[in-house]
Amino acid sequence: MSIETTAAPPSLSYELYPPVNRDATEGIFNSIAALEATDPDYVSVTYSGSPTRRNASLELIEHLIQNTRLRPLAHLTCVGESRESLQNLIRHFISLGVRGVLALRGDLPTDPDEWRGEFPFARYLIELIREVEADHSAALAGGRLGVGVAAYPIRHPESPSFEHDVEVLLAKERSGANYAITQVYFRAGEYTNLVESARRAGVTIPIIPGVIPLNSLRRLNRLASMTGIAPDPFLAHALETADSDAERHRIGVDAAVTLAKRAFDDGAPGVHLYTFNDHRGSLDVIERLELPRTRARASNAWATRAAV
């Protein structure tokens, strides 16, 4: 039995992060060109770290708006920020042409004495986004910003329980969030359990599964360290014992496809692919899912209706 129902074609989106050097810049431009050809609904751009990295995020967003057909979803974190600095950033996003924001708390500083900012939780950031939005209705042509948030199929490392995470997601929706994108997960049933638990708790916004085609054990361990999620032992073993890069690529794509297909079977409204700025695995995943064909059919159907 499907846990979600939707008549709309599935959404498709990717995550990029700002390049750290010239070589990385060339690589991300190649990935942007490849991903643009798949006509995604949006491309999220991470925003965190040093001021240099944050400036790089803004530059990447501006590049996407000015030089591509891609619609950027701007990450915004509130850790270490004042109310005024966040207001200025939201206004800057609007002036650039950004129409979607992913509202996140962000990683806490390792030094407990370091200032953590005025907003301790993402729900306060969502409320601020809506306040600034109301003051810029003319610039937005009377429209609204699309506000996304994070959802956790596995208990957040700082949370007392998975049930608490679901209550936090509900609070984000009540603060004005439009949809959620999940943190990475490794077992197909974890997305299903999250959506079922969220619906029972009263969450109504779409919950989009976030998956990643992992092609190396090093990257898997790095991801586990970043998120606090234990690596899947079967995936780790398969990557470790693979004989070639081509086999590791196939293993990573297979794992991501399995997660996405199960999510779609359970009614997922779309899929969000974490790319690590490497488009090859993501393109192989959506080819296996036949998303480009699905999106082409939807576009043709719309054109036919428009012509009638």
Question: If you had to describe this structure to a student in words, what would you say it looks like?
Answer:
- The chain is an alpha/beta fold and 308 residues long.
- Helices cover 51% and strands 13% of the residues.
- The chain is built from 11 helices and 9 strands.
- Helix 4 runs parallel beside helix 5.
- The protein is globular and about 55 Å long.
- The two termini are 36 Å apart.
Offer a concise description of the structure.
This protein is of the alpha/beta class. It is built from eleven helices and nine strands.
Task: Give the topology.
Elements: E1 11-16, H1 22-36, E2 42-45, H2 51-67, E3 72-77, H3 83-96, E4 100-104, H4 122-134, E5 146-151, H5 162-175, E6 179-182, H6 188-201, E7 207-208, E8 210-211, H7 217-227, H8 233-241, H9 245-265, E9 270-274, H10 279-289, H11 291-307
Shape: globular
- Main pleated-sheet profile: 9 strands, parallel
Q: What are the segments in which pLDDT stays under 50 over at least 5 consecutive residues? A: 297-308
Strand line-up across the major sheet: 7-6-5-4-3-2-1-9-8
Q: What would you report as the Rg, rounded to the nearest angstrom?
A: 19 Å
